[in-house]
Amino acid sequence: MRNYQKTKNNPYWLPHNVYMQALYMVRDYRRLREARRDVLYAAPEPGPRVQSGPGDPTARKAAMMESVSERIYAIEGALSSIPAEYRNGVMEHINGGGADLTRASESTWRRYRARLLYYAAQNMKWI
User: How far apart are CA 41 and CA 35, in angstroms?
Assistant: First the structure.
């Protein structure tokens, strides 16, 4: 599938670099959710170890949680702008999966994909 966005009469048009950032952030959604879960429930490493640098490990964990959670909330907020019956299909369409996309036209999937990426970029304050 091409990474193409309609340029004429498209209220959700994004500059190319912002479009690509939003696209890859949305494609990374599953890994981000796993990373947040792993950071949240990670056990401390036992025994003395050489620290890779100065700092507070709890503060680093909190900063990572904040960064990952910000991206997850941006994606989930953008998903709420799409009708519920199309959300899973749009995510599959973006990930290039083999979802059953025959229940709506290709233009419908492109329109909702553009809307999702636009609102995700807007939630991240990239536009």
Answer: 10
